UniProtKB/TrEMBL annotation:
Domain of life of the native organism: Eukaryota
The protein, known as: Uncharacterized protein
Provenance organism: Larinioides sclopetarius
Amino acid sequence: ELSLIQRSDICLFTVRFADESQKLIITMDKNGGSCVVPLKGNLSQVISESQMNHA
């Protein structure tokens, strides 16, 4: 399952595997930078972490 959340500052792809054991967040900012983050914790936490990675 692949879901996409688009905000003005960040595009967020959530990849959920069939066995639910592993989730990955792939973020892409306007500058074309990308970051893959294993999904642990809630979504807002992952977004803030990925934004810090882009800073």
